[in-house]
């Protein structure tokens, strides 16, 4: 063996060992409890896809083994042993017809369950319809009408976390306001693109209460990797409680006069309310005759944000993460407790929202100090000419420490 042969065989051996180690690590990853495992369906739609996928995998597996065995046999049988070149022939109609018909039959067999699954998945239920809008880089959900028998008397607008009743077929109507995104909760169904100017539907149904996570799966720009999402399934009774809470009037959670939160409300109106809506929020104003009146505080995100929308903050603390569901509002301990709660305890825990004991304020403070540093966004004020001065995402507002304290106190009460 020359030095080079020796070296190359050593490299090959090492390469093999490294490959085996990577493979073992990947397998170990599969064995762990992965929250976005498409092979662990948690509802009828995902189960349908998983069942179909398995059937097709077995059929193509068998075909694959037959083909590989035939190739291996031919390679072994006709290996060059110095024999004469075999007789050259052309065409074998019987064999060719057989090899055309056989795959055609296999494809027809495969097409039957596939096409029926596609139609099944495309059913348009109307037990609960929720509008879903993708934008750079978060998902907005709005509810109206009835959902799983629960009457939603006023529109509910929320972000990141989609709350649905368990055991109820939910129909999402998905669109986008800026670029193409794609909605995906792997344990509940496949993917659906969110395309500006179009409505695509997707069925979602979870068997059990719990947290089902996902992420945008169509590259949508700078912070695509920070565009996550979750579907939260609650029992119908808990879902009713969630709806009631979302529709509570602002006065139920209005800050008490003289508190830091009350100062925070004013800071919010001054700094944030041009983009973010807090429903029913009012402020002192004057009517045409100059009399003192209260006027509603209405956001105008169309003027400031490319997508024309910023997350509704009315009930921020009923969600567990923010800004594309990327940063936790809950401490690690509370989050783990919620995520690992058994289905019959999950709802009660979720409905508590972010309690002061469970609130992890570091993320929110950091966000208010400098959002683009946490999540890359196109917000550089010198660079917005191409977008009419509108930002994609939230700009750095250069808030002072006091303002941040006030805003955190105010936001902690938004539930
Ligand atoms: Cu996206």
Walk me through this protein's architecture.
- The chain contains eleven helices and 14 strands.
- The chain is of the alpha+beta class.
- It folds into three domains: 68 residues; 119 residues, Immunoglobulin-like (Sandwich), CATH 2.60.40.420; 163 residues, no CATH class.
- The strands form five sheets. It has a five-stranded mixed sheet with strand order 3-2-1-5-8. A three-stranded mixed sheet has the order 4-10-9. It has a two-stranded antiparallel ribbon with strand order 6-7.
- A hairpin with a 2-residue loop joins strand 2 and strand 3.
- Helix 5 packs across helix 11 and helix 9 packs across helix 11.
- The longest helix is centred in the first third of the chain and has 34 residues.
- It is elongated and about 105 Å long.
- Copper (II) ion binds next to loops.
